[in-house]
Amino acid sequence: MPLKILDNLEEWLITFLIGAATVVIFISVVHRFACTIPVRMIQDVLIPINVSWAQELCIYMFVWMAKFGAAYGVRTGIHVGVDVLINRLNSGLRNKFIIFGLLAGVLFTGTVGTFGANFVWHIAHTDQVSADMELPIWIVYLAVPLGSYLMCFRFMQVACSFIRTGELPHHDHSHVDGLEEDVVPKDINWLDMDDNLHPHDLKNKQLGENGKGGGQK
Amino acid sequence: QQPIVIKLSHVVAVDTPKGKAALQFKKFAEERSKGRVRVEVYANSMLYKDKEELEALQLGSVQMLAPSLSKFGPMGVKDFEAFELPYLFDDYADMHKVTQGPLGQQMLKKLESKGIVGLAYWDNGFRQLTANKQLKSPNDCRGLKMRIVSAKITDAYMRALGAIPQVMSFGEVYQAMQTGVVDGGENTFSNIYTQKMYEVQKHLTVTNHGYLGYAVIANKRFWDGLPADIRAILESSMRDATKYNNDIAQKENNEALAAIKKSGKTKVTLLTPQERLTWKKALVPVHKQMEGRIGKDLIKAIYKETNFDPARL
Amino acid sequence: MNIAIIFGLLVALMITGMPISISLGLTVLSFFFTMTQMPIESVALKLFTGIEKFEIMAVPFFILAGNFLTHGGVARRMINFASSMIGHWHGGLGLAGVLACAMFAAVSGSSPATVVAIGAIILPAMVKQGFPNKFGAGIITTSGALGILIPPSITMVMYSIGTNTSVGTLFMAGVVPGLILATLLGLVAWYRARKYNYPRMPKATWGERLRALRECIWGLLLVVVVMGGIYSGVFTPTEAAAMAAVYAFVVAVFVYKDMKFRDIPKVLLNSANMSAMLLYIITNAVLFSFLMTSEGVPQMMAAWLIDMGLGPMSFLLVVNIMLLMAGNVMEPASIVLIMAPILFPVAMKLGIDPVHFGILIVVNMEVGMCHPPVGLNLYVSSGITKMGITELTVAVWPWLLAMLGFLVTVTYWPALSLWLPRMLGMM
Ligand code: NA
Ligand code: NA
């Protein structure tokens, strides 16, 4: 149950961040545009409104989105790799490589998370603030350890479930089921397919395997 | 014996005054130490960008930097924001009274609590305003979108002029000026020339309203750990490189102005003393407004060095 | 020596199939651990600051804009308009597909997204009209590649991140080559359709054409918002991307009303997922090129190649071959982010224009997406048509050959890319 909460929190956070960042930049552009309307009264009201922080806020929101989104991406299996070779191996060897890859993910994100935590600890003892919003910079940088540790956890989760069930996060391609009438594509992640860029398990059919021509083997 | 390697990173091009002075320092240091020191200069943000270099120095990933003075404010040493104040110095002589005098040294000492040793101030020059319309008086700036770097003081004085300050990175400026995303900006002659801004700005007013300078700094742990004789060599090399920098900075800014005039692409407007006074009167109130941030005492101390009294304007 | 170790390790890690971002990161980590005195915390710092740049934020914004439009029924209206204009020529609906892809490319920054949007609608319709499956698949797989050549383009943003080239200028430079390639692909389709006598559509009246244009104009205007906005100075390229996202949202939800409010969180989440993956590659690629720089690799490579007396002509040939080879195993974002920072300094030393070099890389990526073993467009088409990859590869070749010919032209005729931005005074 707490896991479900974590999942939801993660999804909610990155959804919010990408939406909010868009709105922030939209507002700042509209503000700048309105400021140049050569009417004294409008200018007197608008110019003193300070939106200099918008760019910085947008960047920070996107960096946070990137860090937590990368963790979410492990769960959805979206990270691309060079899978051409291992996809041609026999299943036993292939599985070993997949597990190796997942453990490499655990190692990297865990290491980086720890360095990040050290770094944040170090920087928290200075008075460094961000340039525009003057936020304490260690809070901003907290995205690195938090995001990396979460990602580390996700890699472990995927590795465990692969070892247990032989399944990897897979993608629902039912929407791409074309050749029918009125199929308006929905929710297709073009970076999210079994396309020799993502390791795929053997329990679920791979794209290109389900047709008349069969797979590429 | 392995030489002591000093990585010196900066964010400007090799052919700017700072870029050249950094190479000069490398030359002096390596010659005088007879090869016991090796200085690796990384220009153009090759190693670290503007936003991360101070953290990298504090971590010890680079040993020396030459960031612009405005970078120390966000680090928690607000004193340095004083250098951003408009019309703080009338000319190079005024400015050197502070940067090359005891007050400047005192300010550098404040960096030590951040794990940083301040070695020297390097000039770039005075900031000028450029735009696509002629800026004769402060009122002409009203409603103009002016590009600034993130800095609270700059933001405040652009607002005092009625302009709309736009934070924008160096790399985006040329195209933003060309297309009109921003109407103008403030830069030294040297930057206006080397970044080709004169091609995309119709007017330049020689306002000399702000000072752009750098501090050469080193990681304190690294610096204190150096053998005393090496440190002495580096200090003397830095002294000479500083002199070299400040000489060529002034000269190159003048040459850049001449080149801009010669290009015929930008009309250069000079201010009469009377006109300059109106600009000063419009901008000096920002000093008072920023007292809370920078500290009244420090501003007073600078006034004292330069013999300036805002009340007498 | 160090260079050999770095690249050897990177390749070894990559071919095990782990995410490219992880193999880049692990290479850097292990190098710093074992070979330098560099404090390792600087890796953590770079992981944040590597993407702390407003220019990079165009990537998530363009992805978001594209996803709103894929959901918004824009593609269907563009297809209707395209077939009303040229559906009566040889090739009929297939030819219209090329035009529709070119139009959708002007609103989307990604090629596979273009294949998805246009292909999912037009391919079933083509089969129904009696076209062989592979004709349509060949057209859409390759025409979809226009997505990254005709602006906006995420690949161009990636290139500009790696090389500090102006995105606005790159976008402008892609227009003419994009239109020419579209014409070329159309010609191939027309020729084959005439040869095999494929069905044509009844000629539409001007009234019908006007109606179809009015229907799809809201979608098409997005390119006006982006390019017009950048060129007229209303926005910077990144701001234009954000405005595109807002505009696409408004069109999908309020103008065409093909998307419901409750679909919005899903679109946001999907876009965030894709963007985060790309941003994670960017971060680690930045880390990797930081390692390259601190080891002096680009400088060394430039010196070495120039020592060998390699001129611009032969250098570009080598670049094309390297990129086409990389296109066999990797997707465009990773290729551009890893290769561009290394090749770019050499290109500059040889006097090659940075914008021309960028367009050349983009066309290379287009080719790479259309052939196996790895080709994003190919896989998307396979998903829609249920054709196998082998069969699809055969279907694609006439158009792929045209693309290769076009690649040679772009490589050795810089004016093709540079004429428009120069005319507009952008460079
Ligand atoms: Na496009
Ligand atoms: Na390929």
Description:
- The complex is a heterotrimer of chains A (217), B (313) and C (427).
- With 217 residues, chain A is an all-alpha fold.
- Chain A has 6 helices and no strands.
- Chain A has helices spanning 2-35, 40-46, 53-76, 91-124, 137-141, 143-165.
- Residues 173-187 and 208-217 of chain A have low confidence and may be disordered.
- Chain B has 313 residues and is an alpha/beta fold.
- With 427 residues, chain C is mainly α.
- Chain C has 2 domains: 1-49; 50-423, no CATH class.
- The two termini of chain C are 40 Å apart.
- Chains A and C meet through helix 1, helix 3, helix 4 and helix 6 of A and helix 2, helix 3, helix 4, helix 7 and helix 12 of C.
- The structure holds sodium ion (NA) (2 copies).
- One sodium ion binds next to loops of chain C.
- Chain A: Keywords: Cell inner membrane, Cell membrane, Membrane, Transmembrane, Transmembrane helix, Transport.
- Chain A: This is TRAP transporter small permease.
- Chain A: InterPro entries: DctQ, TRAP_DctQ.
Notable features of this structure?
heterotrimer; A: about 220 residues; mainly alpha; 6 helices; about 60% helix; elongated; disordered C terminus; C: about 425 residues; 2 domains; 20 helices; about 0% strand; globular; binds sodium ion; DctM (chain C); transmembrane (chain C); cell membrane (chain C); TRAP transporter large permease subunit (chain C); cell inner membrane (chain C)
